[in-house]
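Spend some time on the protein that follows and explain the fold to me:
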Amino acid sequence: QVQLVESGGGLVQPGRSLNLSCTTSGIIFSRYNMGWYRQAPGKQRDLVALINSAGTPNYADSVKGRFTISRDNAKNTVYLQMNSLQFEDTAVYYCNAKLTFLQYWGQGTQVTVSS
């Protein structure tokens, strides 16, 4: 059974940081391209960051320079370090694992940026 479990969300003030984690099981993690997506209320789910199986990251323009995606294949875990958080970063953040036609999602973790 494939599981992706996110953690690390919460309530944070603007300008502060959070580090999200997504721990997987049931997949050969090192082969998968991993991503973080987010969905704000009333909006579509958007890509935040990707890291491929080789460890190459890519970011949405809105988070470049503020967010860092990384992976630890030994721990089957992908991370999203979020710095300089802004009100607009408020959303449910979802972890995604993708390999060709195979795709899995986590249950999401809420990030709320509020003063």
Observations:
- The chain has a mean pLDDT of 97.
